C-alpha cells in the first residue's frame, strides 16, 4: 500500500467495518470507516435496470486535489487516500 | 423548469458512452430520468451523495464513481440537486 504513488493514507477493514490496519491520514480513522461501510451498503442497491450485474468492483470519491479509492478483495475492504496530480485522472484509470 | 431539465437530460444522454441519467432533489425525490435508468433508485442516489459528503464535510461536494467491468455510475451533488450519470466504459 505504501508504494502507491501519491498515497497519503490507507485503511483495511473487515466485512463488519472493523479497522484491521491503517496508516497515514487514515490512521485509526474509525469515523471514515463507518461512513465508507455505509456507502458500500448503499451502493449495492443502485439501479438494477442499468446495472443488472451483482454490485460494483470499485468505488471512488474524488475531491479537487485528492481522492479515496475503495474496493473489496478477499472479504476485506481496502481504502486508499491519494493526492491527484495534474491531469492524471484517478476516476478514469 | 421541467423543460430546461428535460433539455439538459437529453443533452447528457446524447454524450458518447452515456446510456442513462437521473436527477434527484434534496429529499431524494426524482426530478427526472432519461435513457436506461429507473426512477426508483432516486432516493438511493441522494443517500449515496449525502453519505459521501459526510466523509469531508468541509471539502465541498465530491464526485462519487461506482465502477464494474464495463459500466460506471457517476454521482455528484450541486446545491440541492444530485445528478447521476450512467456510462459505458468501452464506447
From TrEMBL, chain A:
Family to which this protein belongs: Belongs to the LAMTOR4 family. Belongs to the GAMAD family.
Annotated SUPFAM superfamilies: Roadblock/LC7 domain
Domain Roadblock/LAMTOR2 positions: 2-77
Keywords, sorted A to Z: Lysosome
Source organism per UniProt: Asbolus verrucosus (Desert ironclad beetle)
Keyword Repeat: no
Locations listed in the record: Lysosome
GO BP annotations listed: cellular response to amino acid stimulus; positive regulation of TOR signaling
Protein name per the record: Late endosomal/lysosomal adaptor and MAPK and MTOR activator 4
CC per GO annotation: lysosome; Ragulator complex
Pfam families to which the protein is assigned, alphabetical: Robl_LC7
Automatic annotation (TrEMBL), chain B:
Subcellular locations according to the entry: Cytoplasm; Lysosome
Gene Ontology annotations for the cellular component aspect, listed alphabetically: lysosome; Ragulator complex
Protein origin, superkingdom: Eukaryota
InterPro entries on file: LAMTOR5
Record carries keyword Cytoplasm: yes
Main location: cytoplasm
Keywords of this entry: Cytoplasm, Lysosome
Nucleus found in the keyword field: no
One GO term (biological process): cellular response to amino acid stimulus
Any one Pfam family match given in the protein's UniProt record, by short name: LAMTOR5
GO MF annotation terms: guanyl-nucleotide exchange factor activity
Family membership noted in the UniProt record: Belongs to the LAMTOR5 family.
Protein name, per record: Late endosomal/lysosomal adaptor and MAPK and MTOR activator 5
Organism (species): Asbolus verrucosus
Amino acid at each position: 500500500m505504501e508504494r502507491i504513488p501519491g498515497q497519503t493514507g490507507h485503511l483495511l477493514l473487515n466485512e463488519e467495518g472493523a479497522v484491521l490496519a491503517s496508516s497515514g491520514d487514515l490512521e485509526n480513522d474509525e469515523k471514515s470507516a463507518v461512513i465508507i461501510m455505509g456507502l458500500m451498503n448503499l451502493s449495492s442497491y443502485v439501479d438494477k435496470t442499468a446495472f443488472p450485474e451483482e454490485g460494483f468492483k470499485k468505488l471512488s470519491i474524488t475531491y479537487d486535489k485528492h481522492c479515496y479509492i475503495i474496493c473489496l478483495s478477499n472479504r476485506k475492504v481496502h481504502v486508499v487516500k491519494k493526492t491527484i496530480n495534474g491531469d492524471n485522472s484517478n476516476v478514469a484509470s | 423548469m421541467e423543460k430546461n431539465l428535460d433539455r439538459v437530460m437529453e443533452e447528457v444522454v446524447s454524450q458518447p458512452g452515456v446510456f442513462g441519467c437521473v436527477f434527484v432533489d434534496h429529499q431524494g425525490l426524482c426530478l427526472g430520468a432519461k435513457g436506461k435508468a429507473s426512477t426508483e433508485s432516486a432516493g438511493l442516489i441522494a443517500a449515496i451523495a449525502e453519505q459521501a459528503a459526510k466523509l469531508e464535510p468541509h471539502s465541498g461536494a465530491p464526485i462519487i464513481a461506482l465502477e464494474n467491468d464495463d459500466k460506471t455510475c457517476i454521482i455528484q451533488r450541486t446545491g440541492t440537486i444530485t445528478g447521476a450519470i450512467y456510462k459505458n466504459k468501452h464506447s
